[in-house]
Amino acid sequence: MTVNGNITEKKYKKLVLQVSLNGFCFAVVDTLYHSVLLFKEVDFRDFPASAKVEDHYWKAFLEHQELTKMYDEVVVLHDNNLNTFVPTALFDEQFLGSYLQYNTKVFETDFFTFDAISNQEMNKVYVPYANINNYVLDQFESFDYRHVTNVLVSKLLEKSKNVEEKQVFVHFGKDKFEIVVVQNQKLLLFNSFEYVTEADFIYYLLFTAEQLNLNPEHFKLQLLGNIAEESSLFKMAYKYVRHVELMDVSDVQKNNSFSTADNLKHFILFQS
């Protein structure tokens, strides 16, 4: 985190970057009013496929002047499937890679790190994009980074306060989705799945429900991320689960002037 010593030099602006290998999105946040001023998405599919990821970021930084301004704080959110939650009772910082080897392919040369989850007895262990971190470090004096699912799960746990029924959330990205099941600020399940078709999605969802003894006729399913009621994914969910709805993001919208669809899609970005 970069903080200027002289209060007159502070910009009261924060830059949040949600990064992946296929593109990224970013938001500028007013830290005085905790409001999102603007956001943009950059899709690398429009760039030459032969170029390195760092070259894509270099080109994007040239094209978006907001990325070259000075900020009091810069936050990088790493968006990938190379992650897992570990209860504090089972956690040892010396063996981070061992927690990931059962659900993803890791190498001895990988860099592992973790985020402590606020007010929860667990840590998020993950592999950040080292090359992207190095590029961002070349652009800014310093920055903070964490995993996107740290933000997602923390906010959904807050939302579950004093709710005794089990709540099922599905967050959609472009080619993967996360299932999060919570109950009164307790995480019951988290898992991330890659998908190609709607059938992939509903298979994983119904299998998860079966493992937790959740009856599709009874539990309430809330969807967020890259999803809309008109989408085939929503229609597939509605076909097999009786109670389906888009998650209420009205509280998030109080801090920006963007649409409900934007707040659903960029729930993590806007909450960081």
Give an overview of the whole structure:
The chain is an alpha/beta fold and 272 residues long. It has helices spanning 53-63, 96-100, 130-139, 148-159, 198-211, 232-240, 250-253, 260-265, 267-270; strands spanning 13-19, 23-30, 35-43, 73-78, 83-87, 113-116, 122-126, 144-147, 167-172, 176-183, 186-194, 220-225, 243-246. The strands form three sheets. It has a five-stranded mixed beta sheet with strand order 3-2-1-4-8. It has a five-stranded mixed beta sheet with strand order 11-10-9-12-13, sandwiched between helices. Helix 5 packs parallel to helix 6 (232-240).
End-to-end Cα distance: 14 Å
The major β-sheet equals: 5 strands, mixed
Which segments are poorly predicted (pLDDT under 50) over 5 or more consecutive residues? 1-5
In N-to-C order, the SSE pattern is EEEHEEHEEHEHEEEHEHEHHH
- In terms of DSSP E residues, the strand content is 25-35%
**Total of helices:** 9
Computed structural class: alpha/beta
Count of extended strands: 13
- Chain-averaged pLDDT: 93
> What gross morphology would you assign?
globular
Helix content: 25-40%
The spatial strand order of the largest sheet comes to 3-2-1-4-8
Q: Which radius of gyration do the C-alpha atoms yield?
A: 19 Å
Descriptive terms for the model:
alpha/beta, 28% helix, 5-stranded mixed β-sheet, 9 helices, 272 residues
